[in-house]
């Protein structure tokens, strides 16, 4: 876990350079008191912010937040914690953990590439989610 204090009217960003499509970001965060805004976006080559997980406020001081996000294409992704919405400019004590898990690429006997999802027994093939028994 990473621990930090985020002053009122401030935000912080954690950047991840993703080189393999199908990578998964697993995350968990909580605050010691009060809510905080959280979102994930990808930076295009032109600098445009493309929302992956819309930024919204979470009451992570009551229930810690966790989740996973699938990155469908390589690029620079930014995880943002935002305390600018703090009406009383209170500092947030923030704890977070993040891990990027890259898929294992397997070659089939027919020459196709399968991306093994590390979270289950499924595979990604040509923009289609596959299970060992066929498409979902």
From TrEMBL:
- Biased region (Polar residues) positions are 124-136
Gene3D superfamilies, per this entry?
A: GOLD domain
Question: For the region Disordered, what residue ranges are annotated?
Answer: 116-136
Q: Which domain of life is it from?
A: Eukaryota
For this protein, the record's PROSITE patterns field holds: GOLD
Q: Residue limits of the GOLD domain?
A: 1-100
Q: What is this protein called?
A: GOLD domain-containing protein
Q: Which organism is it from?
A: Strongylocentrotus purpuratus (Purple sea urchin)
Source organism lineage? Eukaryota, Metazoa, Echinodermata, Eleutherozoa, Echinozoa
